[in-house]
Amino acid sequence: MGAPSALPLLLLFACCWAPCWANLSQDGYWQEQKLELGTLAPLDEAISSTVWSTPDMLVSQDSQPWTSDETVVAGSTVVLKCQVKNHENSSLQWSNPAQQTLYFGEKRALRDNRIQLVKSTPHELSISISNVALADEGEYTCSIFTMPVRTAKALITVLGIPQKPIITGYKSALQEKETTTLKCQSSGSKPAAHLTWRKGEKELQGEQTRIQEDPNGKTFTVSSSVTFQVTREDDGADIVCSANHESLDGADRSTSQRIEVLYTPTAKIRPDPPHPREGQKLLLYCEGRGNPVPQQYLWEKEGSVPPLKITQESALIFPFLNKSDSGTYGCTATSNMGSYKAYYTLNVNDPSPVPSSSSTYHAIIGGIVAFIVFLLLILFIFLGHYLIRHKGTYLTHEAKGSDDAPDADTAIINAEGGQSGGDDKKEYFI
């Protein structure tokens, strides 16, 4: 007999090795399920199983686990929750983006103290990751070991918090009407932060934010600049650069730069007292304002040489005002940024006092007191008249009650005719 044909052997070899790379579809083809359990002992190596399945043997959709994507700020804690309706007596498992098993049911698989078990039941497996870092970002897998194995993905997005902005470009004091440019930069944001400018409470229009990827390939550095012309009102103003980012949750992350502006002085003259009168002492204060503050003050009177008056710092002093002191006075305030001249017209009034609210008050009080005294006087007059009349009536009644007193007719006759019943004469008044 000849050598046996090699064709049957080749067909048998092909049938034996086909499951290693073929998958069975719903039409009855071969399937391969490769289960990788990471570092979980004793399932620390990949397990491969080959099953023959048909459409009638497909697992119910109730065995499909589900989870959700999570967004977390770097440094905080995130919770991954995986749930399944029909667990088919199988356990749930969480794996990280590197396909390392984190938890298989209640069993910890990866030694990372940041990862803790939150809840483990046949229908749910929840874990937490604290102090989340940018390196923790990626797709996490929840698996249930039914036949076939079913999985669900959860994407963790880690937000990088922008660092506090840094302002550069300001070196020294600026002069009035000078144009300056300030720059602002912040790094470490993910996604890229947005920079804004303001002066006090007023928004400044800066250039569009520039974005550059950091060397770690995950975060970004943003920068912006603003150019503006300063005025004297800007002296002491705060120029603020703010980083706006979703990881801040509305919190303010900003840096301010206070600027100094040099400008020419201004001045005004203030009299003390406000209404000077002849014979009084008067001080004229020259109040200067500027940056730097004026250090020199020069007084003069229009139409004459500067008056020989005693000066105290910026004040012009009149110890005893005269009518001749009336006129227009000028004060020149000078700094190294320039000079400014203010004017004041002095009119010396008569020495009679100016009615004040105090004197008016006393006059009102005096009038009220005089009115009260007048009323009391009238009351006393009427009272005196009343007492006098009632005293005469009292004497008449007393005479009528006496034994020696005549009756009324006799009294009238005696009064008219001068007749008397005795040596003594008595007169009665009614």
TrEMBL record:
Residues 399-430 are annotated as: Disordered. Residues 55-157, 162-260, 265-347 form the Ig-like domain. The keyword Transmembrane applies. It is found in: Cell junction; Cell membrane. Keywords: Calcium, Cell adhesion, Cell junction, Cell membrane, Disulfide bond, Glycoprotein, Immunoglobulin domain, Membrane, Phosphoprotein, Repeat, Signal, Transmembrane, Transmembrane helix. One of its GO terms (biological process) is homophilic cell adhesion via plasma membrane adhesion molecules. Pfam families: C2-set_2 (PF08205), Ig_3 (PF13927), V-set (PF07686). InterPro entries: CD80_C2-set (IPR013162), Ig-like_dom (IPR007110), Ig-like_dom_sf (IPR036179), Ig-like_fold (IPR013783), Ig_sub (IPR003599), Ig_sub2 (IPR003598), Ig_V-set (IPR013106), Neurexin-like (IPR003585). The keyword Glycoprotein applies. PANTHER family: CELL ADHESION MOLECULE 3, IG-LIKE DOMAIN-CONTAINING PROTEIN. Belongs to the nectin family. This is Cell adhesion molecule 3. It comes from Molossus molossus.
